[in-house]
Design brief:
Ubiquitin Ligase Nedd4, Chain: W, binds iron/sulfur cluster, three-stranded antiparallel sheet, 86 residues, 23% strand, 2 domains, mainly beta
């Protein structure tokens, strides 16, 4: 897992973020992007039980609501009332 997938990761821009615990700047990918032992999985559509059939771009189907719709696997889900950890 990477910092980017952690609940403590705060987005700064398309290259980096900040760890809310350590206040360190961490890269989104590449060297130094691997998560630390304090990693906590962030709620995202991609790890929700209602997210199905993602394509090669990470776009899948949300089946958590009455009407199905598309969703990105990287979409933050901390505000979704239907989120259910897979
Ligand atoms: S807790 Fe660890 S994995 Fe999570 S953002 Fe901070 S440094 Fe990265
Ligand atoms: S129920 Fe919410 S968190 Fe789950 S896939 Fe649908 S929109 Fe994303």
């Amino acid at each position: 897992m990477k910092h980017f997938d952690c609940k403590n990761y705060i987005h700064l821009d398309c290259e980096k973020g900040m760890c809310a615990l350590s206040k360190m700047i961490v890269p989104i990918d590449g060297e130094g992007s691997e998560a630390c032992p304090k990693f906590v999985l962030a709620e995202k559509c991609g790890n929700c039980a209602f997210f199905e059939c993602p394509n090669k771009y990470g776009i899948g189907t949300c089946k958590g609501f009455e009407k199905e719709n598309w969703a990105y696997n990287t979409c933050g889900a901390c505000g979704c009332e239907k989120y259910k950890k897979r």
